[in-house]
Amino acid sequence: MWGIKLHHRAEISLSRQIFLSLKERILTGQMSQGEALPSTRELAKSLGVSRNTVCAAYDTLLTEGFLVSRQGAPTRVAQGLHIEHRQAFRTESLPTQRKKPLVWWDFKTGQPDLSHFPWQLWRQMLRQAAENLPADQLGYSGPKGYEPLCQEIARWLLRSRSMEVKAEDVFITAGATQALHLLTGLLYQEGQAFALESPSHPAIHTMAASKGYPLHWMPVDQQGADIGALTGKAISAVYVTPSHQFPLGGILPADRRAALIRLAVKNNFYIIEDDYDSEFRYSGSPVSPIYSMDCSQVVYVGTFSKTLFPALRLGFAVLPKALQAKWKHARTFTDVQNPILEQAALAEFLHKRKLDKHVRRMRQLYGEKRKLLLRSVKGAFGSSVHPWGDVSGLHLALQFPGREFGEQFVRDSRQAGIKAVPLARYCPSQTNHKDKLLLGYGHLSPGQILEGIKALRQLLEKTGLFSPA
Question: In terms of domains, do 328 and 456 share one?
Fold first, then answer.
């Protein structure tokens, strides 16, 4: 009856099936407004179900306004419900996409080696957090973050960076990306540009540009950003990666740092210091952050994506007092807070010095991989290729003087099963540094590094981008 077909073994209840079927017929005009429905007894008999099942369906239709009912009169379809269904917008048929070739040698950047992470210990700490967290911590805790974690991060920064930070100034984020997203909104001043390194990571300039904020680019050399490019410019904030410039790898020297601080104080703008992987320095101690020179105009942003694992989505920002109220407001109406279990587990991980131990171990492993990669590059290309950057991080920039790596190289490398990114992609115009490739190595095994560089040389010989002497 009424074209209703019931499926007795379906996941959806029979009453819900009746409701959905009648609703569809009302909206499409198969049942006209004002049309009377059969009695619940009649419809139940015709469908072979109990009257209560039909009553439940009718009640839902009445509640949502699809039917109207008056005592002593039949139940009828409500007025004004017919929706003219138009044919879905059709685009021109696209050519069938070819299946993407497999990538055997993936030199992507910023990827830690997760095979050495102490997963069993981490799971144990997650269980302890679930068992020990008091009930009042499972509600809305606010935008600052789990306070014990803020305290442990302050202690971690003192141990690892010699930074004297108060826990009250530490704010937990969903990774560095969220911190940068919030900061672009908080720090923008009408008509004044965000100053960014060129080349740089696309995250912050994508966020700023998507909001319509003007950008000003600072050229980068082997020592980092050219601070002189800021002279006379109206600036909202300056974004820098001074401890290990991304992607060229230089360290911003003290005189440039001091010049940047003087400009920030004089012109009343903030410096966003992104310290994304300085734990992994393979010669000497970690580089001191700008924050340690003068914290009044610096927002220090850190993340645990490289030291632990990216899916954790935990980072932090150390905020000057003047920004904290605005930050709390913005974060409250963005996503309120981070998941509490991961924060509590990380606080314990830091408290028991497990992160210290893990970083020491990974620093040694990554340092060995870096040496192997450099030896492999020298063996494959000789002295014709020049590595850029300090002895830090999880990637290398390699310069091939006189060569250019463009989109054709990207296509050729993918076909060869290699993922190696031209560094020009990180430049705003993609016209600078065209002779450089970016190779990440942290996640690769020694065998993958050796075979990957061998495959890269074969590709460059084949495409005419390298000729053996």
Answer: no
Q: What is d(CA 86, CA 108) in angstroms, rounded to the nearest whole number? A: 45
For residue 85, give the DSSP letter.
P
Same domain, 156 and 210: yes
If you count them, how many residues does the chain have? 469
Q: What pTM does this model have? A: 0.87
Strands 193-198 and 418-419 turn out to be unpaired
pLDDT for position 429 = 84
Residues 330 and 231 in one domain: yes
How many independent structural domains does the chain possess?
3
Burial of 383 (0-12, 13-18, 19+ CB in 10 A): exposed
Containing domain of residue 69, as a range?
A: 14-77
| CA–CA separation, 273 and 299 (whole Å) | 6
Q: Which of these, 170, 166, 162, 110, lies nearest to 143 by C-alpha position?
A: 170
Cis peptide before 199 (omega within 30 of 0): yes
Query: Rg of the chain's alpha carbons, rounded to an integer?
Result: 30
Write out the DSSP string of 199-232: S--HHHHHHHHHTT--EEEEEEETTEE-GGGGTT
And the tokens for 279? 């734990």
Angle between helical axes of 147-161 and 340-351 (0-180°, round to 10): 40
Instruction: Please give the C-alpha separations between residue 177 and each of 81, 281, 310, 341, in angstroms, as whole numbers.
Output: 45, 23, 11, 21
Co-location of 299 and 448 in the same domain: no
Asked whether the predicted pLDDT for residue 100 surpasses 60, the reply is no
Q: CATH no. for residue 210? A: 3.40.640.10
In a domain, 9, yes or no: no
Q: Closest Cα partner for 367 from 396, 388, 399?
A: 396
pLDDT tens digit string along 326-336? 999 999 998 88
User: Could you read off the pLDDT of 412-464 as tens digits, one per residue?
Assistant: 999 999 999 999 999 998 888 999 999 999 999 999 999 999 999 999 999 99
Rounded percentage of the chain residues whose pLDDT exceeds 70: 96
Same domain, 313 and 370: no
C-alpha to C-alpha distances, 20 to 79, 150, 444, nearest whole angstrom: 18, 50, 53
Domain presence at residue 469: no
Tell the residue number behind the tokens 């850029």, with chain if given.
Answer: 388
**Which residue type sits at 256?**
R
The domain that holds 376 is classified in CATH as 3.90.1150.10
Instruction: Sort strands 315-318 and 298-303 into parallel, antiparallel or unpaired.
Output: antiparallel
Same domain, 326 and 261: yes
